[in-house]
Amino acid sequence: MKPYSEMTKEELLELKRDLSDQYREFQGKNLTLDMSRGKPSAEQLDLSMGMMDVLSSDSDLTCEDGTDCRNYGGLDGISEAKELLADMIEVPADNIIIYGNSSLNVMYDTISRSVTHGVMGNTPWCKLDKVKFLCPVPGYDRHFAITQHFGVEMINVPMKEDGPDMDMVEKLVSEDESIKGIWCVPKFSNPGGCVYSDEVVRRMAALKPAAKDFRIMWDNAYVVHYLYEDNQPQILDILTECEKAGNPDMVYEFASTSKISFAGAGIAALATSKANIAEVKKSLTIQTIGYDKLNQLRHIRFYKNKQGIMEHMMKQAEILRPKFEAVEEILDNELSGLGIGTWTKPLGGYFISFDAMPGCAKAIVAKCKEAGMVLTGAGATFPYGKDPEDSNIRIAPSFPTVDEMKKAALLFTLCVKLVSVDKLLESK
């Protein structure tokens, strides 16, 4: 079929009648499909059930240094847990703090502490007239929610194939002292699946911000979330690159096992310079007496080491890969050559990013909902929930079954076609 933009009004109207008939058929199926969040499926979670058995009332609950994991103490995590997550994200164990179940919580705390107490002796953000953050778009909605919650002004930065537009980032941070940070998902970015190139990582590490308290928020959430065993792109270690560039304190790196073990029952980590760690621990001593060491021990006993994590993630890949490939195949078959949408083909992570014709995303999401499928809200991948082009839609293939994903993808492409036809008819 030729591109929709080349069709006459009569051809578009005929096409619309046919598509509308197909849509009514979908409505009659009473579907209940949910692709709104990147949740692990029950099948993925089943892979970690053995973790429930590694500790019991008869277990030795002391770690290697003799710490009794049942008791208080161990503010920054037990040493074995530090080593496990440090190996996973490829940083020295001395540069890491182990937290509770959520890296999102760690990111919230990091921003909150900067607002109330400042960074490295600099003025607390709450006492400044203006605080701004750079936000690569499309991006992770919960990053934007955190900064919005604290009244931080957000500036859109376009994502390229290999990461944020660094020309724009370098210019903005060097000229504006009120810009205090940037959100980054450097590996299999949410939602596009982008992997930052070596050049982008090096340029990020070498930034010369006007603000002394500027920080890179490096959310390495999908560091081991590969879809293919034989195609696993790597990124440079941002901590090392920052140190090389003379900016050792400029980055906070976050990670967790939330999508590795159990959602809501993982362990999280902050990796950063020793100077930053010392500052963070001053607050932690007030905030907590220590996080859940038994859960840390549970993870260590189950995975043992990074190799154990990687073997586990390849099992997850076997579950996730058919879902991603099903979506990509249907998008290719149904939409290629029509000129009404583009999409990413990630090698890992949890999402596929789809760009419809400008002015169509909200209508597509609404039309899908009318037929029984819930998607992430249009605009969610932009600060303030406002996509200037109203074009980006995040597709989350992880939770449904493969068969459900096929139905969802067919319905989605149908809705894209219908809304696109309506959009084009407006100008005929």
> N-to-C terminal Cα separation, in Å?
19 Å
Rg over alpha carbons: 23 Å
Poorly predicted ranges (pLDDT <50, ≥5 residues)? none
CATH superfamily of the largest domain: Type I PLP-dependent aspartate aminotransferase-like (Major domain)
What is the number of E strands? Answer: 13
pLDDT averaged over residues = 96
| Strand neighbour order, sheet with most strands | 2-9-8-7-6-3-4-5
The fraction of residues assigned to DSSP E strands is 5-15%
The SS-based structural class is alpha/beta
Biggest sheet statistics: 8 strands, mixed
Q: Provide a count of the helices.
A: 13
Count of spatially separate domains? 2
**Helical fraction:** 40-55%
Order of helices and strands: HEHHEHEHEEHEHEHEEHHHEEHEEH
Report the oligomer.
single chain
Name the overall outline: globular
Give structural notes.
The protein is of the alpha/beta class. The chain has 2 domains: 4-44 and 310-425, Aspartate Aminotransferase, domain 1 (Alpha-Beta Complex); 61-304, 3-Layer(aba) Sandwich (Aspartate Aminotransferase, domain 2), CATH 3.40.640. The protein has helices at 9-27, 42-46, 79-89, 103-117, 141-149, 166-175, 198-205, 238-244, 274-287, 293-303, 306-335, 361-370, 402-425; strands at residues 33-35, 96-98, 132-137, 153-160, 163-164, 179-184, 215-219, 251-256, 268-271, 341-343, 352-356, 373-375, 392-395. An 8-stranded mixed beta sheet has the order 2-9-8-7-6-3-4-5, with helices on both faces. It has a 3-stranded antiparallel beta sheet with strand order 10-11-13, with helices on one face. Strand 10 and strand 11 (352-356) form a beta hairpin. The chain is globular and about 75 Å long. The chain starts with 8 loop residues before the first helix and ends with a helix.
